[in-house]
Design brief:
Elements: H1 7-17, H2 32-39, E1 44-49, H3 53-62, E2 63-71, H4 91-94, E3 98-101, H5 111-123, E4 131-135, H6 140-147, E5 155-159
Parallel strand pairs: 1-2, 2-3, 4-5
Helix pairs in contact: 2-3
This protein binds NADP nicotinamide-adenine-dinucleotide phosphate.
Length: 163
């Protein structure tokens, strides 16, 4: 899910640093259904959806029987005045797919044990994350604008001061 400027670098990062088997740039794939078929020829067991719209539709078509979809976000549908419908809904029936949304707020009580788990896994090198650090409050506006054009690599963070 990356822009053309950083595309190949980010694909390399996803595959070689973060351990994904495959990655592609959605902006370079004119046919998302064909792209998913190419990257996942056996089909998809579990799809974590942050995108919605056309990507979710392509995923529905490429799910395996008894596949599961966890719906976290729908970033492609930010403009709520122009919602995009789903055309491959029938796959839920024919493939007996389960789809369910969730909200992090429902699980706030688990935050302390989540932190414990994540910190110990991070220390053991089992969890890797990437931050895009901008220095100084004066860089905040440009960093914020950059998020909307895919300029950041990893979570955009503004360092206001060194402790
Ligand atoms: N369920 C919950 O409790 C929960 C909690 C937090 C967030 N969310 C949701 O989760 C989603 C992701 O949040 P985030 O903080 O990770 O957002 P983020 O940091 O802004 O990242 C959004 C990512 O989506 C990509 N993207 C944008 N449009 C796309 C499209 N049409 N197709 C494919 N990829 C696209 C962007 O890539 P480019 O920049 O290269 O376009 C970027 O990598 C949001 O929809 C947010 O509302 C849900």
């Amino acid at each position: 899910m990356f822009n053309n400027l950083n595309g190949s670098y980010q694909i390399d990062l996803l595959k070689n640093k973060l351990g994904f088997d495959e990655a592609f740039n959605y902006k370079e794939e004119p046919d998302l259904k064909a792209a998913l078929k190419r990257y996942f020829p056996q089909g998809i067991d579990i799809y974590f959806d942050n995108v919605g719209g056309e990507m979710l539709d392509a995923a529905l078509l490429n799910m395996r029987i008894h596949g599961r979809i966890a719906v976290c976000g729908a970033v492609s549908q930010k403009d709520v005045s122009k919602p995009r419908g789903l055309y491959n809904w029938l796959n839920l029936i024919t493939k007996r797919i389960r789809i369910e949304g969730f909200l992090q707020n429902d699980y706030l009580h688990l935050y302390p044990s989540f932190m414990e788990h994540v910190i110990s896994n991070y220390k053991e090198g089992k969890i890797v994350y990437v931050e895009d650090m901008s220095e100084g409050l004066e860089s905040a506006a440009a960093a914020l604008v950059g998020i909307f054009s895919g300029k950041n690599v990893g979570k955009q963070v503004i360092r206001v001061a060194h402790e």
